[in-house]
Request: fold
Amino acid sequence: MSQQLRVGLIGTGRIGDVHARSVHAHPDTVLHRVADVFLESAQRVAGQFGGEATDNPESLFSSGDIDLVIIASPTSTHIDLIDQAIDAGIPALCEKPIDLDIERVDRLREKANASSVPIGLGFNRRFDPHFASVHERTQAGEIGQLEQLLLTSRDPAPAPNDYLAVSGGIFRDMAIHDFDMARFFIPEIVSVSAQGFNQFSQDIKELGDFDSTAITLRGSKDELVLISNSRHAAYGFDQRLEAFGSEGMLRVENLTDLNVRHYGQREVEARPAYQNFFLERYLDSYRLELEEFLKAVRGEASRTPTFEDGRMALVLANAAAESAVTGQTVTL
Ligand SMILES: NC(=O)c1ccc[n+]([C@@H]2O[C@H](COP(=O)([O-])OP(=O)(O)OC[C@H]3O[C@@H](n4cnc5c(N)ncnc54)[C@H](O)[C@@H]3O)[C@@H](O)[C@H]2O)c1
Reply:
């Protein structure tokens, strides 16, 4: 590519930092403007990965010198920023979840879908090489008819309370990745039932949220999806996937940095600890997610999750949250 695409980044917290690294490392992109309401945070990232820092995110849209924007600010800001990106004609890759309020999403839906400005949703797990391989092989018929999908997502430890307080709860914040992964394999989900549990965190309970969940989804061809979430896991980040079909099974286990096992008198087959958290486990997926979105920016066919994918994941999360409170299965 002759000219690098100039990227504007909004939000320089945990995930903003990851995106800044991906943009910096990619030969086709350059970090051009970096915005965060905390100027020092924007300056820190700009100092490390390039670009001009500002505490005014809106200024990116009027700058006239941005080719795409990455929205990595808190969830409550996403819909307004996508709206501004569409008005400015700037392609936007927005972090998950799309928003916490389906009515706000629906108010922008028609405009977003009618617009030719590419809008991508940051469901990075679709681009994890291991999950993507299972998806590709399942699509190719290697395990026959897909009958069951089992997703295990457990964080090593809860996020800080101030994050959890505005996160939208375990279904919309955490399980949202699993809802998207379910739709990646089984696009049409017809019903949702869920239970929420308060097993270990008084803080999370006081926020009116659950620390653990069990979710069952039914696909339109009677496929079964089982999702297990916990906000903690004593042994680290637990990310497993199992696709079970009429002709066999494909499975992704947890990853370790070094695949060396120790055999001794007290233990056998012992391996180093799992990769610590999303920054390590999904590092490749963020890079590949950007790569895929760049295709959309260049007007090429792209598999980047869309505004509608963002909306549907939220619809499923809302249904699960409702089911967990009422005890009823929600039919979509
Ligand atoms: N895809 C993933 O794996 C993944 C992982 C973590 C977080 N996320 C999502 O990314 C978003 C950010 O999460 P995080 O963990 O990085 O949060 P964070 O709190 O670490 O960072 C958010 C940053 O945004 C800044 N900010 C706040 N309001 C802003 C505004 N109006 N405009 C610009 N910047 C603003 C904050 O100062 C902070 O630096 C959330 O929507 C979260 O759900 C996605």
Notes: Residues 10-16, 35-38, 41, 57, 72-75, 77, 95-96, 122, 124, 163, 173, 278 surround nicotinamide-adenine-dinucleotide (CB under 6 Å). Residues 307-326 form the longest helix (20 residues). The two ends are 45 Å apart (CA to CA).
